[in-house]
Amino acid sequence: MDKKKVLYIHSLNTSFVRKDIGLLEANFITKKSFFNPNKKPLVPFQFIKQFFFLLFNIWGSNIVIVQFAGYQSFLPAFFSKIFRKPCLIVLGGTDCVSFPSINYGNFNRPVLKTFTAWSLRLSTHFAPVHKSLVKSKYTYTDDDYPEQGYMVFCPKVKGGYTELFYGYDATQFRNDEAKIPNSFITVGFLNNPNYFRKGIDLIVEMAKSYPDNKFTIVGGTIDDIPVINVPSNVKLVDAVSYDELKALYAEHEFYLQLSICEGFPSAICEAMLCGCIPIGSDVAAIPEIIDDCGFVLKHKNVDELKSLFTEAMSSDKIMLSQKSRKSIMDRFPLDERNKFMDLVNKLMK
């Protein structure tokens, strides 16, 4: 029996993209195309390159898959519609939201909003990493829209959706290190808007209030951070390898995910597998990931966060650490992503 042919378009080379490509290549003839939307002057050339990729490969293909909606998804969705092929767009977070207060989200940028909306209206099906990206109430801050999700900003979408979580390798992320008491870690680039989107501003504020505790921020240097007077108990670490990151997780007691907006953040899951107790914002998938293993900040409020810190540091940390690891192992195992393959096969029938 001949293998079916899949066209896969992506704009990132992250670990979860590589995992999806590995699954596809093991089962189908997979033609890949990379679209880099970050260098704006080169976007027209990316469109030209993508046009010819689709023109030469759409024939005989059985499905078109795009990792995230945006500039990179418009032509694939358009070609799919013209040639009557199913088009599946994986939705990750920024492609479903608008946060004017931090200038973030596809639907906050007029041109990108248009390409995103066109893509969604032309596509067959969507695979959001969490159901909150479809339509959900937003209460963490009062500075932005009280509802988020692609159905809020593009209500005429007709395609169905299937919620698909990521899965994590418990053998790769382990809890084998002695932990530094009352130590906190987070991962997130420090430049705007991520400094505020990832809640780094709150972490810096907490560090000032807890001078005896250790805070580690991975993803940038002092030159990236848009404030001055970073407390001495805050360690800024530039981007590190996966192995180094695992070691950093393992030596810290708590992981902080105080984001204003997210989809399904992998870092908190990986940290929990390393025994970190999660403290996170009431945003998107974060409360579901934390479950009863840690602490959820209901609103972006320093006093509320201080109360959580007090509660967290006086909790049964050994029990919560073990529970955090087991929770991710049980609910989001590595083979969870096999459901992605099930969906692809279903759409090709």
Distance between the termini: 15 Å
User: What portion of residues belong to β-strands?
Assistant: 15-25%
Number of helices: 13
Mean pLDDT over all positions = 93
CATH superfamily of the largest domain: Glycogen Phosphorylase B
Q: What can you tell me about this protein's structure?
A:
The protein is α/β, with parallel strands linked by helices. The protein folds into 2 domains: 5-167 and 334-348, Glycogen Phosphorylase B (Rossmann fold); 180-331, Rossmann fold (3-Layer(aba) Sandwich). The chain has 13 helices and 14 strands. α2 packs parallel to α3 (71-82) and α3 (71-82) packs parallel to α4. The longest helix is centred in the N-terminal third of the chain and has 15 residues, at 43-57. The radius of gyration is 21 Å and the shape is globular.
Give the topology, please.
Blueprint: E1 5-10, H1 15-27, E2 29-34, H2 43-57, E3 63-67, H3 71-82, E4 87-91, H4 110-122, E5 125-128, E6 136-137, E7 147-148, H5 150-153, E8 160-161, E9 180-187, H6 194-197, H7 200-209, E10 214-218, E11 234-237, H8 242-251, E12 252-257, H9 266-273, E13 277-281, H10 286-290, E14 295-297, H11 302-313, H12 317-331, H13 338-348
Helix pairs in contact: 2-3, 3-4, 9-12
In short, what is this structure?
This protein is of the alpha/beta class and 349 residues long.
